[in-house]
Amino acid sequence: MESEKNSTPVTLTQYIIRSQPPHSRGEFTLMMMAIQTAVKVIEKNIRRAGMLGMFGYLTNQSQNATGDSQAKLDVIANNAFKAYLMTSTCIAALGSEEEETLVIVDFDKQGDYLIFFDPLDGSSNIDANVSVGSIWGIWRVPKGKKFASIEDANQFIRTLKGNDIVSAGYAMYGSATNLVLTSGHGVDGFTLDPNIGEFLLTHPHICIPKKRRIFSVNEGNYNKWEAWYREYIEHVKKNKYTARYIGSMVGDVHRTLLYGGIFCYPRDAGKVEGKLRFLYEAAPMALIVEQAGGKALSGTGRILDQSIHRLHQRTPVYLGSRHEIDICMSFRDKHAKKQEGDKQGSKL
Ligand code: AHM
Ligand code: MG
């Protein structure tokens, strides 16, 4: 959706309403409004955090559901997402990085969507004023299906696949606040205009550049990586790639979408499933990257081909420009072939 003819930029609210199919009941619009409001609340809190003493971690050494220390802003961001979504009348349940279990809406107020979010990703960076973000992924609940209990909702999510995701997005709180969205028909980006408090369409039809020699990974984990991935990184270094790693997934993926290259969080000896969470980090970013023309793999296939087992499951992540992901995976394939050859040889 381009700007209006008189070049008045399209607002996010207009964009969401106009992208609804005719006769839709508007539940999706309401849910996106709730997300938009939560993002604005988080944005305001981040911008004022230094003045209000809101940087830092909770003093009671609190950890979230996946064992990470909770920053004060993690809690504020989680409360903002929860408050607006739970009263939006369009979700049946939500899952958050900051919540131990799924949270279900009162039985008679349940809507048709399930949403999973990381309210403040990369929060360990926040005191240093490095870009952080919120990430969300949205799945559908069949019409008439209601959850009587958390266990009921847990059972239902185990019937879903990554491919069932219907929409995903992220907000990045950086030098400007960006919001990037897909509902399976391409990717569009918005920037918050602080003067009017509206997100404006600034990056229509984002397409990831096909080739770019930029690699993004935490090299501190080098000694724990699998041999094939270490070889790929050696290849990258011999071929004059540029290294860029923020350590904030939203920032690293946003740059990869705009500039191209590869972003990885591989599995390693200490994190055999990888670090990033499937439902609210990897799957939403995978949908966005694929919709922008890139690839998003787990090392054994597409990220989105994975089944869902539990709320906080993790997955390795390799995403970015198609060409670069293919080069990366060629090292994995070469290694697998060699291992197979060695196995056959030892049987002789
Ligand atoms: P978080 O959800 O606890 O903030 O952790 C996720 C973050 C990602 O934003 C980032 O890609 C990754 O962790 C960085 O991890 P590391 O510090 O191990 O490089
Ligand atoms: Mg996170």
UniProtKB/TrEMBL annotation:
Residues of the Fructose-1-6-bisphosphatase class I N-terminal domain: 11-204
Cofactor(s) needed: Mg(2+)
Keyword field: Carbohydrate metabolism, Hydrolase, Magnesium, Metal-binding
UniProt entry tagged with the keyword Lipid biosynthesis: no
PROSITE patterns in the cross-refs: FBPASE
Keyword Iron: no
Annotated GO biological process: fructose 1,6-bisphosphate metabolic process; fructose 6-phosphate metabolic process; fructose metabolic process; gluconeogenesis; sucrose biosynthetic process
EC number: 3.1.3.11
Catalytic activity, as annotated: beta-D-fructose 1,6-bisphosphate + H2O = beta-D-fructose 6-phosphate + phosphate
CC per GO annotation: cytosol
Pathway(s): Carbohydrate biosynthesis
A GO term, aspect molecular function: metal ion binding
Domain Fructose-1-6-bisphosphatase class 1 C-terminal: from-to ranges: 208-330
Pfam families assigned to the protein according to its UniProt record, in alphabetical order: FBPase, FBPase_C
Family to which the UniProt record says this protein belongs: Belongs to the FBPase class 1 family.
Subunit structure: Homotetramer.
PANTHER family: FRUCTOSE-1,6-BISPHOSPHATASE-RELATED, FRUCTOSE-BISPHOSPHATASE
Protein name, entry field: fructose-bisphosphatase
UniProt lineage: Eukaryota, Discoba, Euglenozoa, Kinetoplastea, Metakinetoplastina
